[in-house]
UniProtKB/TrEMBL annotation:
Family per similarity comment: Belongs to the aldo/keto reductase family.
Binding, substrate: 112
Name the UniProt record assigns to this protein: Glyoxal reductase
Lineage: Bacteria, Bacillati, Bacillota, Bacilli, Bacillales
GO MF: oxidoreductase activity, acting on the CH-OH group of donors, NAD or NADP as acceptor
Matches recorded under Gene3D superfamilies: NADP-dependent oxidoreductase domain (3.20.20.100)
Length: 279
């Protein structure tokens, strides 16, 4: 059970990844993302999650540089966009991401979506395996992959993905996917853990929050962590960034955990990975 913001989970290749980090989806490049990332680092966050398609890798890189923190104390994730999938284009896109971030290596690189084009993500994965073997990425993984995508990928893969970052929150608890990932030692990571704010007024969550003297957001983040799910809530406000990390001084009971999981509706706020093929 993580006890502080610096606590990590050990991925199946031995790399340590913080349980809680900052996501920067829909955070504007330039001042907004620089402020957000610097605030997070100042308040002891060590994991930052971005993506090529977010358009803010440059700002994230500037914030990392300005923070003055040694590179090896940070865990930086980015993701390969759909249009760049394929062997050669993945190698090229990765170099571009590194340049934008101003870094020499990534801690984690993910395939952003399982685009259905025949064999496409398999070619992409071969390139990622190569980058991994060359030491340019410490861990490789996927995002938005369902069980059948993972099975397809793993048929020919030399390296099993270390992480699968998916939409995960009390309305979408993804139990069978979680079981599958656990079985294959793939660490599950949640994006949109607060369902883009749509869960904050839920009566069950509010009641549990009141009982613990916490916010509904803190209850959800704590529920993620107690479910062994790495979590990257996004915020641009410094006080909210601090608040999101104030989840290590209490524990949800078994009854709380069941009540929150019982809110599941298998309802997404983002696209269904089987239908999403945007480039």
């Amino acid at each position: 059970m993580p006890k502080s913001l610096q606590d990590t989970t050990t991925l199946h290749n031995g790399v340590e990844m913080p349980w809680l980090g900052l996501g920067v989806f829909q955070v504007e490049d330039g001042n907004e993302v620089i402020h957000s990332v610097k605030s997070a680092i100042k308040h002891n966050y060590r994991s930052i999650d971005t993506a090529a398609v977010y358009g803010n890798e440059t700002g994230v890189g500037q914030a990392i540089k300005q923070s003055g923190l040694p590179r090896n104390e940070l865990f930086i994730t980015s993701k390969l966009w759909n249009a760049e999938q394929g062997y050669e284009s993945t190698l090229k896109a990765f170099e571009t991401t590194l340049e934008r971030l101003g870094l020499e290596y990534l801690d984690l690189y993910l395939i952003h979506w399982p685009v259905p084009a025949e064999g496409k993500f398999k070619d992409t994965w071969k390139a990622m395996e190569e980058l991994y073997k060359d030491g340019k990425i410490r861990a490789i993984g996927v995002s938005n992959f369902k069980e059948h995508h993972l099975e397809e990928l793993m048929k020919d893969a030399e390296v099993v993905p270390m992480v699968n970052q998916v939409e995960f929150h009390p309305h979408l608890i993804q139990q069978s996917l979680r079981d599958f990932c656990k079985e294959h030692q793939i660490q599950l990571e949640a994006w949109s853990p607060l369902k883009q704010g749509k869960l904050l007024d839920d009566p069950t969550l509010k009641e549990i929050a009141e009982k613990h003297g916490k916010t509904t957001a803190q209850i959800i983040i704590r529920w993620d962590l107690q479910n062994d799910v790495v979590t990257i809530p996004k915020s641009t406000k410094e006080h909210r960034i601090v608040e999101n990390a104030d989840v290590f001084d209490f524990e949800l009971s078994q009854a709380d955990m069941y009540a929150i999981s019982g809110l599941n509706k298998d309802e997404r706020i983002g696209p269904d990975p089987d239908q999403f093929n945007k480039v």
